[in-house]
From TrEMBL:
This is HTH tetR-type domain-containing protein. PANTHER family: HTH-TYPE TRANSCRIPTIONAL REPRESSOR SCO4008, TRANSCRIPTIONAL REPRESSOR. One of its GO terms (molecular function) is DNA binding. Pfam families: TetR_N (PF00440). InterPro entries: Homeodomain-like_sf, HTH-type_TetR-like_transc_reg, HTH_TetR, Tet_transcr_reg_TetR-rel_C_sf. Residues 31-50 bind DNA. Keywords: DNA-binding, Membrane, Transmembrane, Transmembrane helix. The chain crosses the membrane at residues 154-176. The keyword Iron-sulfur does not apply. Residues 8-68 form the HTH tetR-type domain.
Length: 204
């Protein structure tokens, strides 16, 4: 195996190990030594590939967003109804975050630290076609399908209902007594519960 392929294989191994550690211990609880142990390498080699835990997490995060953002754009630009888009968005968002439940906390931290730089990094020059969604809202309002709604309020409700349980997972688990598997089962059910709640609140 040449050096380039070996480096790629080692880096992939590190990223996969880091995902597992971040998943079980969260960003704050994870240690570089934990990740090195999970990857089956020494800590010095881990630092050779990634200088810090934050740099490692950032790469994983960009990978997650890079996979998810095109799906969001596809949902917004599709020919589906507003109701269908809400259903698909909730399902896709929750499915994605269930695979990386530490991501919403990271997003909140980064947005609070450097909102403009964070958005630039996440979007990578791409634009989210919100204008199409706004025009569809206006059209379906005029058609009597939905009542007049504030798009910002609708967006905030969608994000809050999907993301908050993951952000508050430790306290949710503590209060409810649910373990991680039970928590994930509850999140799976929310894929249908959240769209129903939102749709019931806006339809005529």
């Amino acid at each position: 195996m040449d050096k380039q392929k070996k480096d790629q294989t080692t880096e992939e191994k590190i990223l996969e190990a880091a995902k597992q550690i971040f998943l079980t211990k969260g960003l704050d609880g994870a240690r570089m030594q934990d990740i090195a142990d999970e990857a089956g390498i020494n800590k010095a080699m881990l630092h050779y590939y990634f200088r810090s835990k934050d740099k490692l997490f950032e790469q994983i995060f960009i990978e997650v967003v890079g996979h998810f953002l095109p799906k969001i754009i596809a949902i917004l630009t599709s020919e589906k109804t507003i109701f269908e888009k809400i259903e698909i968005f909730c399902s896709e968002y929750i499915s994605q975050v269930m695979q990386a439940p530490y991501v919403p906390v990271f997003i909140l931290n980064e947005i609070n630290k450097q909102p403009e730089a964070f958005l630039k990094k996440v979007l990578g020059g791409r634009e989210i076609p919100v204008e199409l969604f706004l025009k569809q809202l206006e059209k379906e309002t005029k058609s009597g399908i939905i009542r007049k709604v504030d798009p910002v309020e609708l967006f905030m409700n969608l994000i809050a209902l999907c993301a908050f349980p993951f952000v508050a997972r430790p306290i949710v688990q503590l209060i409810t007594g649910k373990d991680m598997k039970q928590f994930m089962t509850m999140m799976e059910a929310r894929k249908k519960e959240i769209p129903k709640l939102i749709i019931d609140s806006i339809k005529k």
